[in-house]
Amino acid sequence: MDCFDTSGPELQLGGLPLSRLAERVGQTPFYAYDRALIAARIAAVRQVLPPGVQLHYAIKANPMPALVGFMRPLVDGMDVASSGELKLALDAGADPKHIGFAGPGKRVAELRQAVAAGVLLHVESARELQLLADAAQALGQPARVALRINPDFELRGAGMHMGGGAKPFGIDAEQLPELLQAVQQNGLAFEGFHIYTGSQNLRGEVISESLRRSAELVLRLAQHAPAPVRYVNLGGGWGIPYVPGERRLDLAPVAEALAQVQGQLAQALPGVQLALELGRYLVGEAGVYVARVLDRKLSRGQVFLVTDGGMHHHLAASGNFGQVIRRNYPVVIGNKLQSAQRETASVVGPLCTPLDLLADRMELAVAQPGDLVAVLQSGAYGASASPQAFLGHPACPEVLV
Ligand SMILES: *Cc1c(COP(=O)(O)O)cnc(C)c1O
Q1: Are residues 229 and 334 located together in one domain of the fold?
Q2: What is the C-alpha separation between 336 and 328, in angstroms, rounded?
Q3: What is the whole-number distance in angstroms between the Cα of residue 365 and the centre of ligand 1?
Q4: Model pTM above 0.90
Q5: Which terminus of the chain, N or C, has fewer Cβ atoms within 10 Å?
Q6: Each residue of 12-33: pLDDT tens digit?
Q7: Is 87 part of any domain?
Q8: What distances in angstroms separate CA 31 from CA 279, 309, 325, one per listed residue?
Q9: Atom of ligand 1 minimally distant from the CA of 198
Q10: Which one of 278, 293, 313 terminates a domain?
Q11: C-beta of residue 185 within 8 angstroms of C-beta of residue 129
Q12: Residue 3 lies in a domain
């Protein structure tokens, strides 16, 4: 079981019914993440990874320190995208050898920190390469380099595109041969390549296609590399279902493509280490956001449940985190799962803006003040991806259970 069980009277987290967990936390709203679900999900991913393919956790998805610490022994490495995330990974005890630092616009101070830490830098531009060479020289310490490729293909079907076409991420594939020469001239320690094409992809065939084309691209560029390619980070972007009718990602084609790509790359680039970096897929389904109903209002025939939580803690559930069309997250009345009395209601937060909507006219158990609204699928891009200062309400605690 690697997602929440909704078959009992109350949502269960870490073996506790939701109402009891709320008492344990001592307040609402809060986020809760379930260790057992995360571990089960990682085990499921391991099942389809060919032996030797590393699994990295992309901290951006959920940077709660206790969660990052819990993940550390379960994954093979961590991918970070700021000095703050670098600190989290190092504090959690991740081996700098297996930390990758990506992201556009890395500052000189961040590059120096990363070189001093000995992590692998995923270089995103020609200028960054130069700044990195300067930092390495100043520190008298070699800089470990992977070049992030903006591929010359773009795939349909990813929720959020981060590669292909004109992008601020990575270096256009056609510019790479020249940059690989610059790596050589600057005496940087070249290790390999990084490709990340997009997030929230629910189609196994699209991910497979992306893996195959990424491998082809890497093989083409490897001919221009100043040193053997020892590392290839093939990205991830595996999605989770959010709305009814969205099908769970089928891992069978992904497993097949991974095995094929590994065989191909291992033959052409002996000793190459492959890695996948997953964020949302590892933690998204293991988290829930919990808010308490404060008021129940009837306005011209529509029921509004006003809660103590809202978009300031959970921007994505309100539909304002990059979604094109607002669709409801899975929301339940977490202490009344099996209640036969049901109605259509909207769940709103306490913010004085119509954007503060957690559920728009959904079928829910009839709820009263004191009941607990639970937003499922909330383990990724929740607390840290929300404007918590907006309107001056208290910040939201997070617990790992
Ligand atoms: C955001 C990001 C990830 C994580 O993406 P998910 O969709 O959460 O798996 C991985 N790699 C890079 C480079 C990213 O920017």
Answers
A1: no
A2: 19
A3: 35
A4: yes
A5: N
A6: 999 999 999 999 999 999 999 9
A7: yes
A8: 17, 10, 25
A9: 7
A10: 278
A11: no
A12: no
CA Rg, the chain, in Å? Answer: 22
* 237 and 300 share one domain: no
Which amino acid, residue 381? Y
Residue 149 CA to ligand 1 center (angstroms) comes to 14
Measured from the CA of 148, which atom of ligand 1 is nearest? 13
Q: To test ligand 1's pocket by mutation, which of 85, 167, 277 has the most ligand atoms within 8 angstroms of CB?
A: 277
**Number of separate domains in the chain:** 2
- One domain, residues 259 and 322: no
Predicted local confidence at residue 5, as pLDDT? 85
pLDDT tens digits, one per residue of 245-303? 899 999 999 999 999 999 999 999 999 999 999 999 999 999 999 999 999 999 999 99
Residue 283 Cα to ligand 1 midpoint, Å, equals 12
Instruction: Report the distance separating Cα 115 and Cα 62, nearest Å.
Output: 24
Range of the domain at 82: 63-278
Any ligand 1 atom below 6 A from CB of 102: yes
Name the closest-CA residue to atom 9, ligand 1: 279
Report the CATH number at residue 328.
2.40.37.10
Which two tokens mark 36?
A: 């057992």
For ligand 1, say whether the CB of 242 is within 6 Å of any of its atoms: no
- CATH number for 223: 3.20.20.10
